[in-house]
Amino acid sequence: MIYEVYIKENKIIDKTDDEKSLDLVKSLIKTKMDLELAHKNFEFAEEELVDYYVYQIKANQAKINYLLKKIKRRGLIIDNITERDIRISTKQEAL
Question: pTM of this prediction?
Answer without folding.
Answer: 0.73
